[in-house]
Amino acid sequence: MNDRYEHLLRKSRDAKRGGHEAWSVQSTGEKVAVALVLNRADWLSTIQYTVADAIERSGIEWVAIIPQVARQLAEEE
Fold first, then answer.
1. How many domains, in total, are found in the chain?
2. 3-state secondary structure string, 24-43?
3. pLDDT tens-digit map of 3-32
4. How far apart are CA 70 and CA 46, in angstroms?
5. Contact between 8 and 34 (Cβ < 8 Å)
């Protein structure tokens, strides 16, 4: 695991536990990646992003780890 993975996992856990309120205090880049991890297109729309916009904003390095983070969160349930 690398620093990016750990960072995204931590931010995603925060938003999963704290909901929209916890998500809303994150940076825009974090919000976009976390919304993708949590499959929350509704959250993306509140910041006027589509899924395609979110993928582009996140970049290839972050998009590559999103499925892994999502799987880990699902396993923690």
1. 1
2. HCCCHHHHHHHHHHCCCHHH
3. 999 999 999 999 999 999 999 999 999 999
4. 21
5. yes
